[in-house]
Write a structure and sequence with these properties.
The protein is α/β, with parallel strands linked by helices. It is about 60% helix and about 10% strand. The protein has helices at about 15-25, 35-45, 65-70, 90-100, 110-145, 150-180, 185-210, and strands at about 5-10, 30-35, 50-55, 80-85, 105. A five-stranded parallel β-sheet has the order 2-1-3-4-5, with helices on both faces. Helix 5 (about 110-145) packs antiparallel against helix 6 (about 150-180), helix 5 (about 110-145) packs parallel to helix 7 (about 185-210) and helix 6 (about 150-180) packs antiparallel against helix 7 (about 185-210). It is elongated. InterPro entries: Bact_response_regulator (IPR050595), CheY-like_superfamily (IPR011006), Sig_transdc_resp-reg_receiver (IPR001789). Pfam families: Response_reg (PF00072).
């Protein structure tokens, strides 16, 4: 019943795309290929993605330039980007990746389990985000339909409680992830945790606004 999330894989080498598909197939989500930055930007015009895996070294529009275009678009600026690179130029090169808007920066060859685990976090967050937004939208329509009956009020209160509990579960997962990442004390940990925190804070704020007596819902 739940729609699968889309993951965008961007690499100019077909063998690299095949390797990524093999690693991520276990997540059972929709994997979309793009062999260039231009092709990736076209895909982003029509589809919503949970996360983007973006190769840095590509002919023509490289990963940094592609990321800059993604972050300039209002529709796509909040999509997490994980940079993949076969070279390591040191801290300056890594910093450029984060400056371009990446939430993580992984050097090849990478550990398949680690990459899959990182991607799964963003897929889970995306799916929860979609579920919460859909249910919150339905609840808002219900509340705006007029003064609810006693049964409707109980149903709305129950739905709010369910939404809050689901969000709390994701918040707990994110907190555990942050603690785990903090132990590595690297820039990737800071960037990933900060992105998750911003997303969850926004969701919690939107949910709190629906609570009776908040002014928005009532």
């Amino acid at each position: 019943m739940v729609q699968k999330a889309k993951i965008l894989l961007v690499d100019d080498r077909p063998e690299n795309l095949l390797a990524l598909e093999a690693i991520l197939s276990a997540l059972d989500q929709t994997l979309v290929r793009a062999s260039s930055g231009e092709e990736a930007l076209k895909a982003l015009l029509t589809d919503d993605f949970a996360v983007i895996l973006l190769d840095v070294q590509m002919p023509g529009m490289d990963g940094f330039e592609t990321a800059a275009h993604i972050k300039r678009r209002e529709r796509t600026r909040d999509i997490p980007i994980i940079f993949l690179t076969a070279i390591n130029h040191g801290p300056h090169h890594t910093f450029r990746g984060y400056a371009a808007g990446a939430v993580d920066y992984i050097s090849k060859p990478f550990d398949p389990w680690v990459l899959r685990a990182k991607v799964s976090v963003f897929v889970e967050l995306y799916m929860k985000n979609c579920q919460l937004r859909e249910q919150a939208s339905l609840l808002r329509l219900q509340l705006e339909g007029g003064r609810p009956s006693a049964d409707e009020a109980r149903e709305s209160a129950g739905l709010l409680a369910e939404l809050s509990a689901r969000l709390a579960a994701v918040e707990e997962q994110a907190e555990a992830l942050s603690k785990q990442l903090d132990e590595t004390a690297d820039a990737a940990a800071v960037a990933t945790a900060a992105h998750l925190e911003r997303k969850l804070t926004g969701l919690r704020r939107a949910l709190d606004a629906l609570e009776p007596g908040s002014g928005t819902a009532g």
